[in-house]
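Bumping with the actual sequence this time:
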Amino acid sequence: MAEGAPTVVIRGGHVVGPPASRRADVVLEAGRVVAVEADVAVPAGATVLDAGGCLVAPGLVDLHTHLRQPGHEEAETIESGARAAALGGFSAVMAMPNTDPPIDCAADAEEVLTLGRDVACEVLVAGAITLGRRGEELAPMRELAAMGIRLFTDDGAGVQSGAVMRRALEYGRGLGVTLAQHCEDASLAAGGVMHDGEWSSRLGLPGMPAAAEEAMLARDLALVRQTGATMHFLHLSTKGSVALLAAARAEGLAVTAEVTPHHLALLDAAVEGYDPVFRVNPPLRSASDAEALSRALAEGIIDAIATDHAPHPPEAKDLPFDQAPPGMLGLETALGVALGALEGVLSPEEVLARMSFAPGAIARVGPADRPAACAQGGPLVPGAAGHLCVVDPAATWTPDASRSASKSRNSPFTGTTLRGRVRHTLYRGVPVVIDAEAQR
């Protein structure tokens, strides 16, 4: 798997469990973990990475990344996005299918997989649920599943037809794959560019009501109940969605969900200056929504943190707020933003778990589906794949647009102080980030 991978010793860190978290060195050879124990003897010629004062965790897994290629390489490429991911501690990202053309057939999926074979992290691919993401005819899910694709979504647009979604869930269940939904009833969301509430009224901007998300979520939970299928819900953003999801999980439905760092850290009041960098979909919500999302993550109602990394070139975001495309960068800042937003709610170790173990299981890239030598998001034990990140939870840093690996610059966190930084990232046993600097 990793011919030519060096022998690496990660020295003096605190390894995040499971099994139990402990102070230990980690030794990697030929792309795999070979030892996790205190005070190891350093093999001759080994590369030693300092992890003093740091947490050593599995490489982070992002369930929700827009790499833009093919079709919008001016915003991002698979290579630049993978480099940004590695700087953020990610060893795997799930490429969303709303590219141009959409990833709705084997040829398009193979193009992305090929482009992702020699970059700084693993590029997983989500297939579209419907042809062209138009919400009408099902994409050839069997053909895509045969390639190893396990997640399907029309992200960027919710599947509006309940009948189409029911057929997709029934078909997906037979294939053993997971459908992921962008919950947005288009008739309710129509024209909305920010959260429908006090701030949209103050600013004179059309609002997108929480009901637009919650109505589709309620519909799809009913369809999961009827079909017995597995479903994942993308970037949930409202306290009403949390209540619906909590009831579904208490009932035992096979559902999972994610939340973004920006929906935890930012509120709709941020739109006050009409800066298009704060336009996202779903929109930034109220304080009560953000609090509900944080509690849901702590209580296990929401499983994972995902970035929804959505790059746009400067000319696209340099438009009036209501005309600019939604989306913001996330890969390089996700961990620092999440640690800050969840301080006092989750420990740094728990935040890392929700960015590695949990999304790895949802993405179906863990040990149950693939050999340990290839697994993402699995425990750091001998024999595990050499995908790791080393995080200094006390380090403060300021994101600098001029040093970003992304081709785009649409981050609201540029120039702000974040606490918690990735020191090193390893992919297939090879250091791709050392001391917060990309190596390739």
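The tokens above came from a reply further down the thread. The chain has two domains: 8-56+381-438, 58-362.
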